[in-house]
Design goal:
Elements lengths: L1 H28 L8 H37 L1
Keywords: Membrane, Transmembrane, Transmembrane helix
């Protein structure tokens, strides 16, 4: 039982430290504006493309297989 208390106590201390650190960072950077340039936007577009391309290909393959399957069954 003592071990369980130590583990939960450590987790609680860590969560408190994380919250405290977030507040420190917010205070530190509250006066600075968010600087987003065209390179950042381009990087976001490329990342979105890399994530969505496999999804589009999987959907296209699924639609093709369904289309071919229905045509084969209807003949």
């Amino acid at each position: 039982m003592n071990t369980l208390w130590r583990v939960t106590s450590q987790n609680k201390r860590h969560k408190e430290w994380v919250e405290e650190r977030k507040k420190q960072i917010d205070e530190e950077y509250k006066d600075r504006p968010l600087d987003v340039g065209w390179k950042d936007i381009l990087a976001m577009i490329i990342a979105a493309f890399q994530v969505l391309t496999p999804v589009f290909f999987l959907v296209a393959i699924f639609i093709t297989l369904v289309f071919v399957g229905f045509n084969f069954l209807l003949k």
